[in-house]
């Protein structure tokens, strides 16, 4: 008797776990309707079918849990293990959670559909009003154009302000470098021999430039002569 009871328990648990997995898969499909960017005004066939399948799975699972409970009650206290009781409690908790999830998703889809319908009605009323009052539509168009122009002017003003700020920073840096150069020259003038050394370095650079220029000119003349 205990062997047949154990086999029945295992089969019922396997069926329950399978239905729980199917419910999770259908929840993934059903949740996409709540997050759809353009939800249709009325439920489409796929949405209705998915919701019906979820509801059917929940009812089947409730029936299986009832069978598990009766089977556990029929066992003696010695054979009814704590593990089976925990498994049964887990299946009941999962079923309750899935019922709450279905209610939450159904409410989210309903709210999203109401918002979409309201927005569609507002847009329809605006279009109807503009078609009946073309002067208002033209005024709205001019206001929109004015807003775009104002935004363009704002961007241009921002760019010009940044350019002026950068130019001011460059001027400050030039002034700072000029002050540093003057201080260096002034300090160099106070050290004996520095001015002469700087002069000799400049003269050497000029002499080297003259020599290099003469050599390049000589090479060019030789190249023209032999060609």
List the helices and strands and how they pair.
Elements: H1 2-34, H2 45-74, H3 82-132, H4 134-190, H5 194-226
Task: Describe this entry's structure for a reader.
With 227 residues, the protein is mainly alpha-helical. Helices cover 90% and strands 0% of the residues. It is built from five helices and no strands. Helix 1 (2-34) packs antiparallel against helix 2 (45-74) and helix 1 (2-34) packs parallel to helix 3. The longest helix is centred in the C-terminal third of the chain and has 57 residues, at 134-190. The N and C termini lie far apart (118 Å).
What's the number of helices? 5
Largest sheet: none
Fraction of helical residues: over 70%
Number of beta strands: 0
- Elements, N to C (H/E): HHHHH
Arithmetic mean pLDDT: 78
Class derived from helix and strand content: mainly alpha
- Tell me, what's the shape? elongated
How much strand?
under 5%
Quick recap:
By secondary structure, the protein is an all-alpha fold. The chain contains five helices and no strands.
Record keyword descriptors for this entry.
mainly alpha; 5 helices; single chain; 0% strand; 227 residues
């Amino acid at each position: 008797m205990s062997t047949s009871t154990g086999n029945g328990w295992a089969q019922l648990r396997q069926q329950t776990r399978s239905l729980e997995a199917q419910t999770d898969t259908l929840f993934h499909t059903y949740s996409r309707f709540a997050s759809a960017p353009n939800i249709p005004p009325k439920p489409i066939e796929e949405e209705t079918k998915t919701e019906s399948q979820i509801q059917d799975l929940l009812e089947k699972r409730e029936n299986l849990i009832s069978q598990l409970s009766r089977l556990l009650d029929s066992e003696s206290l010695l054979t009814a293990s704590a593990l089976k009781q925990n498994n049964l409690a887990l299946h009941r908790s999962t079923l309750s959670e899935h019922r709450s999830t279905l209610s939450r998703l159904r409410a989210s889809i309903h709210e999203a559909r109401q918002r979409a319908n309201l927005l569609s009605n507002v847009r329809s009323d605006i279009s109807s009003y503009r078609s009946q009052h073309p002067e208002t539509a033209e005024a709205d168009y001019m206001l929109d154009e004015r807003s775009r122009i104002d935004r363009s002017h704002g961007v241009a003003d921002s760019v010009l302000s940044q350019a002026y700020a950068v130019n001011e920073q460059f001027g400050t840096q030039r002034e700072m470098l000029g002050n540093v150069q003057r201080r260096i020259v002034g300090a160099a003038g106070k050290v004996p021999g520095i001015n002469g050394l700087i002069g000799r370095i400049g003269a050497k650079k000029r002499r080297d430039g003259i020599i290099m220029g003469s050599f390049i000119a000589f090479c060019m003349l030789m190249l023209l002569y032999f060609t």
